[in-house]
Amino acid sequence: MGTGVQEQRATLGQGEVLPLDSPSQAEGSYEGLRHTRSVLNSLFSGALAGALAKTAVAPLDRTKIIFQVSSARFSAKEAYRLIYRTYLKNGFLSLWRGNSATMVRVIPYAAIQFCSHEQYKGLLGGYYGFQGKVLPPVPRLLAGSMAGTTAAMVTYPLDMVRARMAVTPKEMYSNILHVFVRISREEGLKTLYRGFTPTMLGVIPYAGLSFFTYETLKKVHAERSGRPHPYSYERLAFGACAGLLGQSASYPLDVVRRRMQTAGVTGHTYGTILGTMKDIVSEEGVVRGLYKGLSMNWVKGPIAVGISFTTFDLTQILLRKLHQMGYTAR
Fold first, then answer.
1. Most exposed of 71, 177, 211, 221 (fewest Cβ within 10 Å)?
2. What are the ranges of the Solcar repeats (predicted)?
3. 3-state secondary structure of 1
4. Cβ-contact 177, 104 below 8 angstroms
5. pTM
6. In terms of C-beta distances under 8 Å and separation of at least 24 residues, what long-range contacts does 282-290 make, across chains too?
7. pLDDT tens sequence across 30-78
8. Measured between alpha carbons, how far is 154 from 311 in angstroms, rounded to an integer?
């Protein structure tokens, strides 16, 4: 059975040759390959960035969640005591309890968020006529918000599972799959999306301001220093500023989200965002309730976001250099 090429050759007369792909076809194929490689690089870089950042601050993150979902008063001293008691009772690795669930959520979340941010930047850049350049302020903010909402929508049930594992003893949920099974059987599948609305409302300012601040600081740095690429410590500082602003702006909604996510195991019945806020304020006050643990977030947030943005940028640069070296070697 002959191939299409063999059949085409059979019909050629003497002196005729097979037609080659037109330059436009070859260029289109190359552009498609380059786009695919860019997406894969962004996904890998984002996954690595998220994993490193969250693992670095996991003990602080777990402690913050425990205070967020309880009525206990927060202070740096009490946070330290909680971490120390956990260490004495359950060992050093217990400080990372729930981190496996965090990784299952964070790796796809960060991969999708960073990758979609690159895609949204390209789309908005093309629409506003800034292709390949730094976007103007409004599209810059919009690209970050859209990236955050895209990632949160896809991975939300994993965030719910992670919150449950962080505030419950090991005997209650043995692993990630066990959390899914128990919640589905005892509370219904809808529970996996409890707290979804405050999450979406919170991620818009958080992701938007984080990406906006980081991109803006890099732009200002390039204009004033004359260097297109900041040093690693400068990237960390820019990311820290981005995390500080983003998390401070969205923190009350983060508290509401955690309360709604863990209502099934804390004995509360939180139904709506406003209702949850009202209950928190009436029981604990505005500052001590809605901003509980914010000071800890000012420590862990800048560290995590700084590591995340820096890791993503440096991994992207490394992958591009490796690709160029591969072509040079040929």
1. 177
2. 37-123, 135-220, 230-318
3. coil
4. no
5. 0.75
6. 283/71, 284/71, 288/73, 288/74, 289/255, 290/251, 290/252, 290/255, 290/256
7. 677 888 888 999 999 999 999 999 999 888 888 877 777 776 777 777 8
8. 23
What is the per-residue pLDDT across 86-119, written as a single tens digit (0 to 9) for each? Answer: 888 878 887 887 777 778 889 999 999 999 999 9
Q: Identify residue 256 by its one-letter amino acid code.
A: V
Q: Quote the distance between the C-alpha of residue 271 and its chain's center.
A: 26
Please answer whether residues 148 and 203 qualify as being in contact, where contact means their C-beta atoms are separated by less than 8 angstroms: yes
| CA proximity to 236, closest of 300, 319, 302 | 302
Angle among Cα 104, 321, 233 to the nearest 5 degrees reads 65
Query: Each residue of 1-32: b (16+ CB within 10 Å) or e?
Result: eeeeeeeeeeeeeeeeeeeeeeeeeeeeeeee
Q: Which residues touch 307 (CB under 8 Å, ≥6 apart)? A: 49, 52, 53, 56, 236, 239
CB 280 within 8 A of CB 255: yes
How many angstroms separate the Cα of 101 from the Cα of each of 62, 143, 213, 242, 257?
A: 12, 27, 29, 25, 17
Give the Cβ contact number of residue 295 at 10 Å. Answer: 13
Taking the C-alpha atoms of residue 244 and residue 179, their distance in angstroms, rounded to an integer, is 32
Provide CB contacts within 8 A for 146, sequence distance 6+: 116, 117, 120
Residue type, 71: S
Structure-token pair, residue 304: 């995590």
Distance in Å from the first CA to the final CA of the chain: 36
Range list of H helices, the chain: 4-11, 23-68, 76-90, 99-128, 137-167, 176-186, 196-225, 232-261, 263-266, 273-284, 294-329
